[in-house]
Specification:
The chain has about 475 residues and is α/β, with parallel strands linked by helices. The strands form five sheets. It has a seven-stranded mixed β-sheet with strand order 4-12-11-10-9-5-8, with helices on both faces. It has a four-stranded antiparallel β-sheet with strand order 13-14-17-16. α3 packs parallel to α5, α6 packs antiparallel against α15 and α8 crosses α9. The two termini are about 50 Å apart. The structure holds pyridoxal-5'-phosphate (PLP). The site of pyridoxal-5'-phosphate has 16 residues, from α8 and β10.
């Protein structure tokens, strides 16, 4: 037998409203309207359970029907907020993989929305009134933009690499320079992908130097592919030697083995035209003699997450016959966004204005400096006397492994709270807790907000107005 409960809690428990009473309150009617009767009732039960537990623990005070309804409603509002939500990316990394990489062009977003809302010609040939191919919507554009004979699109570049290896080198050897056996991040390591693709990795050369004779000595009757990988997220400097694409293509051709070049980011335009460092384009890589080239859709290209395989028609035919292709294909939403993105490349003069990735990368430090000047006073006013806001130059990164050593001159705001490390972490946390979280980066004991990717200053200030300063800084 359990001991009788003390008198006071029993009275307090009795004072709590019933579920029915709560459901009759005005707040409950609004809550049911917004979230539905079942979820609202279930949440009211949960809140009442918690209230009872609190009373038993001696912590709670009796609540009326309206208080309980109010608590249930605010719980539901929190649950209803999307988990995947917009943020202000002020990290200075334009193509931030954890923040979703490329921001799509308006044209792409509109095309995706239309594809979501209506039936579309995904695999339908309007002229013939019969079955069409999903790739038909972008094949022509991709061939035009890259100079390749044929092209296909899959889920991402990792999928493209997997599919190429599994189709053209299954049960055979793939020859790669030791200097190019990269890890992109997460579980994407070239040697592991090769193992899963069912091809045998044959490493040639050394980490810093690989010569033509290394490839020539390794290519034999069991060779399926010669593989060249763009070392996207690092650069070996110093006493180095790599076999240039054109020379490697000649070697592969002489031996009758296809050359597969994984470009990683891959760009469809000459970035130098927009004031950036020149990166070999897909067109140049095809022209240099690669038989197959793969690259990403959401890195420098500035489109949705996709991966491309472009190259020789006979090799693409084999790739399209691989049953894995079906498992790696893209849906209508991304395909619509992709087609719209690729079409923007037809007009290079306006590309930087319309394609957010390029627009952000091409922004001059002076623009961000002006923004820092405009934003510093209202931020300082909001942050109060215990945080100093200082405009200062900084450097942005392209991100996603594109041009790993090239950084871009930028300008930002350094937020430096009194009290050092602990206060700095608390401030960063407070900025992340905003309705639209603001993500900066830590640098030299300050929270730096790189303004390169901030285009909506008014929206930013509105979000910032909701900031609640952490205890020590208030
Ligand atoms: C980024 C990258 C990949 C992976 O591409 P995803 O589109 O992220 O799947 C593969 N290879 C290289 C060289 C890369 O830079």
């Amino acid at each position: 037998m359990s001991a009788p409960e003390p008198q006071a809690p029993t009275a307090a428990l009795r004072a709590l409203p019933s579920v029915d009473q709560v459901l009759k309150s005005a707040t409950a009617r609004a809550g049911i309207d917004r979230h539905g009767r079942e979820p609202f009732t279930a949440t009211v039960r949960r809140v009442l359970d918690e209230a009872r537990a609190a009373v038993r623990a001696g912590a709670g005070h009796p609540s009326g029907a309206d208080d309980i309804a109010e608590a249930a409603l605010s719980k539901l509002e929190i649950d209803a907020a999307p988990s995947l939500r917009p943020v202000f990316n002020l990290t200075g990394t334009v193509l931030h993989t954890n923040l979703g990489r490329a921001i799509l062009a308006e044209e792409a977003a509109e095309a995706a929305l239309a594809a979501m809302r209506q039936a579309v010609t995904l695999e339908y040939d309007i002229a013939e009134g019969g079955r069409g191919e999903r790739d038909d919507h972008v094949r022509g554009l991709l061939c035009e933009l890259t100079g390749a004979e044929d092209a296909t699109v899959v889920n991402n570049n990792a999928a493209a690499v997997l599919l190429v290896l599994n189709t053209l080198a299954l049960g055979k050897e793939s020859i790669v320079s030791r200097g190019e056996l990269i890890e992109i991040g997460g579980a994407f390591r070239m040697p592991n992908i090769m193992a899963r693709a069912g091809t045998k990795l044959v490493e040639v050369g050394t980490t810093n130097r690989t010569h033509p004779k290394d490839y020539l000595g390794a290519i034999g009757p069991d060779t399926g592919l010669v593989v060249k990988v763009h070392t996207s997220n690092y650069r070996i400097e110093g006493f180095t030697k790599e076999v240039e694409p054109r020379e490697l293509a000649a070697i592969a051709r002489e031996k009758g083995v296809p050359l597969f070049h994984d470009l990683g980011s891959g760009t469809l335009c000459d970035l130098a035209r927009y004031g950036l460092v020149h990166e070999p384009t897909v067109r140049e890589t095809v022209a240099d003699g690669a038989d197959i080239v793969t690259f990403s859709g959401d890195k420098l290209l500035g489109g949705p997450q996709t991966g491309f395989i472009v190259g020789r028609r006979d090799l693409l035919a084999a790739i399209n016959k691989n049953p894995m292709k079906r498992a790696l294909r893209v849906d209508k939403i991304r395909l619509a966004a992709l087609e719209a993105t690729l079409k923007l490349y037809g007009d290079p003069d306006r590309l930087a204005a319309r394609l957010p990735t390029l627009r952000l990368l091409a922004r001059k430090a002076g623009e961000m400096e002006a923004a820092a000047g405009r934003l510093a006073p209202p931020l300082q006013a909001k942050l109060g006397p215990h945080v100093t806001v200082t405009p200062r130059p900084c450097r942005s990164q392209i991100g996603s492994g594109a041009l790993p050593t090239a950084t871009l001159e930028s300008f930002g705001l350094a937020l430096r709270p009194e009290g050092g490390g602990h206060a700095l972490d608390a401030l960063a946390r407070a900025l992340r807790a905003l309705p639209v979280p603001v993500i900066g980066r830590m640098e030299d004991g300050a929270l730096v907000l790189d303004l390169r990717c901030l285009e909506d200053e008014a929206g930013f200030l509105a979000a910032f107005a909701a900031l609640e300063l952490p205890d020590g800084l208030a």
